[in-house]
Amino acid sequence: MSIQYESRYAIGPNEAKTFDTQKLRDAFLLQDLFTPEKIQFVYTHYERHMVGSAVPVKEILELTSIDPLKSEFFLSRRELGVVNVGGAGIVEVDGVQHELDNKEALYVGAGDKKVTFASKDATKPAKFYLNSAPAHHAFPDKKVTRETANVLKMGSPETCNQREIYQLIVREVVQTCQLQMGLTILKPGSVWNTMPAHQHDRRMEVYLYLDLPADQAVAHFMGEPHETRVIWVKNEQVVVSPPWSIHSGAGSSNYAFVWGMSGENLDYADMDKYGPADLT
C-alpha cells in the first residue's frame, strides 16, 4: 500500500489578498481527506506541518515514509498526533496496541518505526485524523481520553460561543516537541467556535470540522484582522490556517472541531485577540 500525498506551499498575506473564492479554497481547504482503506497526507510548508488520515475498514494500514521526508521510516525525525473521529480502532506502535474510541487521542513520539491502523468493526470503521510535525527529541507515546484531557469551559449562551475545549495533546498533558492537538465541542445554540478571533504568529493551525449535519455548514473566517476572508466548510473538511491569519468560525448549527498546531511556542494562551469591533 502506498500513501497518497500532496504538497501545499506557504502563501503570504499579500498574495492571499488577490485570491478569488476558488483560489482561496484551493490553497487552504482540504475537502476529501477521509477515504476508505487509504492513508492520505497533505504536506504543508507552514512549519512543515502534515495533515492526514487513515481509514482502515477490512485492511490494516501501515504508516510508511513518503518521498518528501527522505527518511527510512515516517517518524524518523517527526512526531505524530492521532485523534479517532470514527468507530473504535486500534493503533499499534512497534508491537504495542492502543485502542482508541471516538474522540480519543494518541501521541506517538519520534523514533517509533512501525505504526499501523485497524478498525475493530468493519461496519463502523475508525477514522484516524493525523497531524505530524518535525521533532528534535523522542518523547514517550501516550493515549489521552476526554477524561484525562485538560478541559476548559469557555464562552456563554449570551455570546453564542458556549463550548468545552479538551486539550488532548498539550504540554500540561503530554510532552511534545512542538505538536499540539485538541477537541472543541460547542453547546446546542452556540455557533462561534472562538470569539474574540485570534492569531498567533508563532504557530500555525489546522481545523477539522466535525459532527456537522449534511445540510449545514461553517463559515470559517481567516485573513489578516483588517483583511478578512471567509471559506464555507462542510463536515469532515479541514482548513489550514497560516500564522499570519486569524481563525474563527460560525456554523449554521452547533458542531465540533479538532484543532492542531505546530510552531516555536507551546504556550496555548500565547495569542493576539481581536474582538468583533476590531475586525474588518
Automatic annotation (TrEMBL):
Highest rank taxon of the organism: Bacteria
Cofactor note: Binds 1 zinc ion per subunit.
SUPFAM superfamilies xref list: RmlC-like cupins
Enzyme class: isomerase
Pathway the protein acts in: Glycan metabolism; pectin degradation; 2-dehydro-3-deoxy-D-gluconate from pectin: step 4/5
The protein's required cofactors: Zn(2+)
Keyword hit for Iron: no
EC number: 5.3.1.17
Record key words, sorted: Isomerase, Metal-binding, Zinc
Catalytically driven reaction(s): 5-dehydro-4-deoxy-D-glucuronate = 3-deoxy-D-glycero-2,5-hexodiulosonate
Positions contributing to Zn(2+) binding: H198, H200, E205, H247
GO terms, molecular function: 4-deoxy-L-threo-5-hexosulose-uronate ketol-isomerase activity
PANTHER family: 4-DEOXY-L-THREO-5-HEXOSULOSE-URONATE KETOL-ISOMERASE
NCBIfam families named among the record's database cross-references: PRK00924.1
Family: Belongs to the KduI family.
Role, per record: Catalyzes the isomerization of 5-dehydro-4-deoxy-D-glucuronate to 3-deoxy-D-glycero-2,5-hexodiulosonate.
Protein name as it appears in the record: 4-deoxy-L-threo-5-hexosulose-uronate ketol-isomerase
Organism per entry: Catenovulum sediminis
Gene this chain is encoded by: kduI
